[in-house]
Structures are given as C-alpha cells and as structure tokens.
Amino acid sequence: MSTKSSREIGRKATGNDFLTDVWINLKRWLRKTVRNPFIVVSSLLNPIIFLFLFTEVFGQVTGGALTDALGANVSYITYLVPAIVIQTALIAASSSGIGLVDDIENGMFEKVLVSPMSRTAVFLGKALSEVVRIIIQVALILVLGYVLLWFDTGGAVGTYIATGIPGALGIMGVSIVFAIWFTAFSNIVALVTRDQESTIIGANLLQLPLLFVSSAFLPVSVLPEWIQVVATVNPITYGVDAARALMLGKDVLGVLDVNVFAGMWNTIIPALVILAVLDLVLGAIAVSLLNRASSSEVR
C-alpha cells in the first residue's frame, strides 16, 4: 500500500474535518503560549515600551515634517500608533517560526508530520494563535496611545481615531492581514534552516531595517531618495499606511499615486490588495514546505 493511500485512510480514521484540525492546532499553540510567562509578559510590555520611547525620541523633532506632509492638526502620537501596531504584528509573526523550530527540536514536529492532519490546517491553526496575540496587543496599543495623547494634549476620544470604533476594528484587521505574510516567512525560514538561532537571526535581520526604510516613523517624502524607492516595495509601508489612513481618516499613501477610489480608500484598498497577494504567495510556499517535510530530515 502506498504512503499516500495510508495517509488517506488515516485521515478518514480520525473523523476530523479541516476546521477541527485548525481548532486542535490553535488550542495547542495558545496553551503553549499561555504556559510561557516570558512570552506573555514580553508580548504585553513590548508595545508599551516602543510606543513610549519612540514618542519621546521622535515626537520632539518631527513637527515640521508632519505639518508639511499631513497638515498642522496631526500629533505625532496619532501618527506613530499605527506604526507601533504594525511593528507589534511583525514581532509576533516573527516568533511563529521560532516556535516551529522549538517543535522540531523537541520532537513534536515529527508527531505532527506522521498524523493525518491537513498541513494547511496545521499552518492555519498556528497562524491564528499569533492572530489572537496580535489582537490583544493592538487593543492595548490603541488604549495606551489615547492615554499618551490625553496627557500630551488633553484631546477628547473623538480626536484620537478619526474613523471611530469601526476604524479601531479596521486597524486590528489590517494588522492581521499584515502579520500573515511575515508569519509565513518566519515559518519558511524555520522549515528551511530547522535551527532556532538561524530562524531568530533571519527574522531579526529584516525587522528593524524594514521598519526604518518605510513610512513607519517619518513621512516618506522627507526620507532620502533611495529610501523612498525601497519604501515603495516594502510591505511595512502598506501595512502602516493602511492603518494610518483609518487612524487619520484620510489618504496617506505617499509611495503610489492612486485616485480611483475616494479619500482614505485610495490608501486602504491598494495596500490591502498588495498585502493579501503577499499573504497568498508566502502562505502557499509555507504549506508546500510543510507538505514536503519529512521526519527523516529533522535534526
């Protein structure tokens, strides 16, 4: 009997459908995260530290650049919050590959490979566990951002997120769409290297450089010309600008000239399309590598 036939029989024997396999993997990764106090505490502290530090460091020197790019009524806190949201999603997504390598090293990955579960469900369940963490972190950042704005200007809630509660939910949605491509990328690095240190280095090698050559901390128009070119092909630019358009309620996409839609949708729609394509391509590669994975290759 062929290996493929054995797997098909095994899959039928479990009685699990695709959604059940996703749920099983989601629960396993959530429990693994909750049982590690370091991950829980660092996940909550990271966005607080970054938001506070970047506001203090850049907030005092960016007034003129913001006024030229977006007008005089935009504070650096409301400009920065979308960047911290995307940065947090990026960090959470990068840890996904590290968790996979940990599974490889402790033998859990081999057990998953010989199970009849769908490889797509394995990847999706793992990605959804990161989504849950990202939603909690984004909610924390949005609340903290308003607290900082209130201490800075005493502004009312209505002056914080121009698009209101739907906009806040939209920012969460953007962070999820953004995180999927980097979750897939970190899992690809993990499956290729099968080494924790290499995965950490590979993920960290891209995080900070990509953030600083995007629209995250300053308007693209004030950055050097070569950075403006890089920012055009940098996915972080599209994630930050989509979240920032929802935050400010206006079109902020500086790397592409889109006038097909109305107002902020000239930023949100093209940005989400680009990120969705990236999600599909890298997600397909990650699932393909999972399908090809063999327990004999695990170190």
TrEMBL record:
Q: Which residues form the ABC transmembrane type-2 domain?
A: 38-293
Q: What is its main location?
A: membrane
Keyword field contains Transmembrane: yes
Which controlled-vocabulary keywords does the entry list?
Membrane, Transmembrane, Transmembrane helix
Which compartment or compartments is the protein found in? Membrane
Q: What is this protein called?
A: ABC transporter permease
Q: Which GO terms describe its cellular component?
A: membrane
Pfam families referenced in this protein's UniProt entry, alphabetically: ABC2_membrane
- Indicate yes or no for the key word Cytoplasm: no
